[in-house]
Write a structure and sequence with these properties.
51% helix, globular
Length: 760
């Protein structure tokens, strides 16, 4: 753990004889700076065990009282000071409300480094106090600083590059890396076409296995030459993490030796061979022993009845499940093509590896992924240089590697033979992947539809988090239409959040329609007809279900329920409940008579207690409400003091501001419109809680400064690209992770949404 302290200021108040005070201060300084810091790091490491997050605190104050007796040792003093300092840091982390600006959290070290690199690329790293850990690079130019940072953190480079890709700056970063840095990050020689050391080790283990089995007909004279002959016969594709794959590797070597006359055929009708085989296998418990036993019996004597019938694995095209998963993961990334264009193979390899890790983090520390990508890059270069691409691919399909190489110029064959043999042995999926990579060009400039509502895509992640993908179907809400209910709800919210921008010439914004799964723009009248079918009884049910979810996610501060009565834009009145903060309004009801107020709030109070475990105190400083609600609590519902009165007034003002910002896009159905307002405000509050320093911002501020923005949308086969215009606070959005891909939006074809940002 790196628990660095940039500046340590110590102030002492000593109660002692004046003559010894200087000596005590000097001792405290020495212990604090030389020894206590070690105890501080150890205490923090224990407190944060298993937490990979990087916490950057601007300042921490720790008050410590120490009684220094004559028997107080420096070690005890250091432990006390270090533990107290670590405790102060932990309290600062726990108590941070996200608004003080004193704490910035990153997912892990790689995320922290990636944020700094992106800041360097964008030129906004200067003056950001939470990048003090990189102060040593401040004197360097941008390119030098980027290369130094990557070299200093090369053990984390795959994950760093993946994060930089998520933040949309991978190409810019790769362009800044010099050849020396790329050579360190992607040492081609270190993970070439085959891992010969592993293959040689398995070959030697197989020889040991034959020794113990006493199966030699003749001993080979040159073990190394025998190994090289074996390599020419087939490409070892062993997955050392898989017992079955390792058993196949041993069986392959035994088969190779048997076919070349080095092994004697045992007399299987006797029990002596089976006994030797079982005894030998007992010492190889890291293999799939059952499969290897039966495959060897079948190899030596196909008429033997001692073997349990099992499928004998083919000698070629032996791809393990993990290798199949790897090929599929890379193929998924390039299924649309157009992600690579770098002439430098190392840049291409680094980019593909970054995309792979961003898509599937499990490959970050897996050497098999690097081996696969390097083979693909080498074979890709050969395919692109071949005089006949179709002929080259045909040779790989027939496993005629020599003929394939004859189609490649001599100066382009370096390493290509082994790489092509590797991919050819994996069969058609690997060859098809190679073809896709070879035909790639850079992703073209995004073309699609311009939209006033592109910023609504930012809310999709929170829409998923608050279960609004599944809750509409569970509650049969809103009314059934030609759209999925969850898609319809998102469209209703978007109509309110985007305001005038959601409609043009009597039709819904085309980009907004793409975002909700429609291929073309929708007539506003058709949309209004869909909305008219909402049942009044379903609105309360849906709000109650959503409130239960919000309470379960600890969004609700339950001690107080503030109740407001407001006038709606259509002339109706409504009663709305807020939690203790006054800025979360999870429940609302359109009124047709004053008598409904008491019944409604009584129902809410019971729901509140069931969902949160707290019976709320009801506050309503409204002449039209307070007298109606006295019977519920049998006590005054007026604020008890000036602080409660101020909080109530602020909550009411914030509610009116929010309703004003969401007044456009009304459907004419009062219950539906009020519920949509409630859900839109709740969704924005869920979304804002991860925005550093803006979690308590008003609804109008969130809409105007983050969500309501133009952009361009493009629907592809399995992805929706959303290119957003830049806003001044986009750094906050990036740090919250809201520009990461959204992986599963069921109403979209393919389900994935990818974010891009327009140039400044």
């Amino acid at each position: 753990m790196d628990a660095r302290i940039a500046h340590l200021h110590s102030h002492y108040r000593l109660v002692s004889a004046q003559v010894v005070a200087p000596e005590l201060a000097s001792r405290l300084d020495r212990v604090l700076r030389q020894v206590a810091v070690d105890h501080y790091e150890a205490a923090l490491e224990q407190a944060l065990a298993g937490d990979e997050s990087v916490y950057v605190l601007r300042r921490v104050k720790a008050r410590v009282t120490v009684a220094l007796g004559s028997d107080a040792t420096d070690a005890a003093l250091a432990k006390s000071l270090g533990s107290n300092l670590a405790g102060a840091v932990m309290r600062a982390i726990v108590r941070d409300d996200g608004e003080s600006g004193n704490l910035v959290r990153f997912e892990n070290h790689a995320d922290y480094v990636a944020h700094f690199l992106v800041a360097l690329i964008k030129g906004n790293d200067r003056g950001q106090w939470f990048y003090h850990a990189f102060a040593e690079f401040s004197a360097l130019d941008r390119g030098s600083a980027i290369n130094r940072v990557m070299l200093d953190n090369r053990e984390h480079s795959p994950v760093i590059l993946a994060y930089v890709h998520r933040y949309g700056e991978l190409d810019a970063l790769l362009a800044e890396l010099n050849s020396a840095t790329k050579r360190v990050l992607w040492p081609i020689d270190a993970h070439g076409p085959r891992d010969l050391d592993v293959s040689r080790s398995l070959f030697l283990v197989a020889l040991q296995f034959v020794d113990e089995l006493a199966g030699w007909a003749q001993m080979p004279r040159d073990g190394e030459q025998l190994f090289r002959d074996y390599l020419k016969s087939a490409v070892p594709l062993s997955d050392w993490r898989d017992a079955s794959s390792l058993a196949v590797a041993i069986q392959d070597v035994v088969r190779f030796l048997f076919q070349r006359g080095y092994l004697a055929r045992p007399q299987s009708e006797t029990s002596e061979f089976l006994s030797r085989l079982d005894k030998t296998l007992a010492g190889f418990d890291w293999l799939d022993q059952v499969w290897l036993r039966n495959s060897l019996i079948e190899l030596f004597d196909k008429d033997s009845s001692s073997a349990i019938p099992l499928p004998l694995r083919s000698f070629c095209n032996r791809v393990t499940p993990r290798q199949q998963d790897l090929i599929s993961s890379i193929a998924r990334l390039v299924s649309d093509g157009k992600i690579l264009n770098a002439a430098d193979p190392r840049s291409s390899a680094l980019k593909l590896f970054a995309l792979l890790v961003a898509d599937s983090p499990k490959w970050a520390d897996d050497a098999a992924a690097k081996v696969m990508i390097e083979n693909l890059m080498v074979a890709r270069r050969a395919l692109q240089a071949a005089t006949s691409a179709a002929g080259f691919v045909g040779c790989l399909q027939r496993q005629d590697i020599e003929r394939a190489m004859s189609l490649v110029p001599l100066d382009q064959r370096d390493g290509a033979k082994e790489a092509c043999r590797f991919l050819s042995s994996m069969g058609q999926p690997a060859i098809s992947l190679l073809e896709n990579l070879a035909g790639e060009t850079e992703l073209p400039e995004l073309v699609g539809v311009e939209s006033n509502c592109a910023g609504m895509a930012l809310l999709l992640r929170s829409f998923v988090d608050v279960r609004l993908l599944t809750l509409p179907d569970e509650c049969a809400y809103p009314a059934e239409s030609e759209l999925p209910r969850s898609s319809m709800l998102f469209l209703l919210i978007a109509m309110r959040v985007c305001g005038d921008g959601a409609v043009a010439n009597g039709r819904l914004d085309e980009g907004l329609c793409l975002l909700t799964g429609m291929e073309k723009s929708l007539d506003l009248k058709i949309f209004s007809d869909w909305c008219s079918g909402s049942s009044a009884s379903h609105h309360a049910q849906f709000q109650e279900a959503l409130f239960t979810i919000a309470a379960g996610q600890r969004l609700v501060q339950p001690a107080i329920m503030q109740v407001f009565q407001v006038n709606l834009p259509d002339g109706n009145r409504a009663v709305i409940a807020a939690d203790e903060t006054g800025i979360l309004w999870p429940l609302g009801r359109v009124l047709t008579a004053d008598a409904e107020v008491e019944t409604t709030v009584r129902e809410w109070s019971s729901l509140w207690n069931d969902a949160t475990g707290v019976q709320p105190r009801i506050i309503a400083n409204d002449p039209n409400l307070s007298s109606l609600l006295e019977s519920i609590t049998h006590n005054s519902v007026l604020p008890r003091d000036e602080d409660e009165q101020t909080a109530y007034d602020k909550g009411r003002a914030a509610l009116l501001e929010a309703m004003g910002s969401l007044q456009q896009g009304q459907t004419g159905n009062p219950d539906l419109d009020l519920t949509t307002t409630i859900v839109a405000c709740l969704l924005l509050r869920v979304w804002s809680r991860w925005l550093r320093g803006f979690s308590a911002s008003s609804v109008p501020f969130l809409i105007d400064n983050f969500v309501r923005r133009r952009g361009r949308l493009l629907a592809r086969a399995d992805e929706l690209f959303v290119e957003l215009e830049r806003h001044p606070l986009d750094l906050i959005v990036e740090m919250a992770g809201y520009l990461f891909d959204v992986e599963h939006v069921p109403w979209l074809s393919g389900g994935r949404v990818k974010f891009l940002q327009r140039g400044a």
